[in-house]
Amino acid sequence: MVRLNEQQSKGVLYTAASFTLWGLFPLYWKLMEHISSGEILAHRIVWSFIFMCGILLYLKQVRPAMQTVKGLMIDGKALFSLLLSAILISVNWYVYIWAVNHDLMLEASLGYYINPLVSVLLGIIFLKERLNKMQTTAILIAAAGVIISTVQYGSFPVVAFVLAFSFGFYGLIKKRMSFTSAIGLTIETLLLAPAALVYLFFFLKEPVVTMNPSSFGSLGLLFFAGVFTAVPLLLFSEGAKRIPLYQVGILQYIAPTITLFLGLFVYHEHLSAAKIVTFLCIWVAILLFTTSQLRMKKTANSH
Questions:
Q1: Which of 105, 109, 204, 282 is most buried by its number of CB atoms within 10 A?
Q2: Residue 224: inside a domain, yes or no?
Q3: Domain-embedded: residue 1
Q4: SS3 helix, strand, coil % of the chain, rounded to 5?
């Protein structure tokens, strides 16, 4: 039996907490069903930026953040990469909010089950990484599940794939960046905030949130959406650096599992036979992929 030291125990706790919060997010978005997904996203960006500025003050990282911004002004390629990552995460946020509030929670959870496998494919294509036989089998089984669902259900799971690939490409870009998650999220939301504000003040035709006191409750929900965006990310950042990557890979399935259960047992979404087959294929693929990771870790430790 493997014993975890104090730092690893904290790492598991922080990382599990972050994925648990992400899995519970639908409960919060459902409170704002009366607000359009675009308005929620715009407020989420703005309030996340304001909250992250406070976090940087608390963590005493304002000066490193300013130095990072100055460096980005000089390095156009790095600035473009960060802007692209900001756009990808905003697409991911929007589609997830839209899916939850349009009763597509099961498909959203499928997207985050697929995401690790998508990340592996992106690693092969862009980072020239290689798969072993078990990992290749896992990818093929997952692909078979999606094909079966597409044929039987009559439509391609667009939401799931947009979520999986937007977050997969986001992770690929972030992998090459050296600054902390707190600084990264602050700058990303800074880049997105002007567009969000323009949308709120000039393009949003019927805003739910106004200066009318009757909308203050909705404004409070939107403000805390910014808080809830930052907190799990910071927990993840603190946890992931204390534990091996394979443990992070195992823990990440907490979030889509919680979302799946919420969709089934709280919001009573329909689970068709085609979806059951798809989920079974994905779960088998995950089992094979995780087993492969554990074997590789065991082999590495034995040498």
A1: 109
A2: yes
A3: no
A4: 85, 0, 15
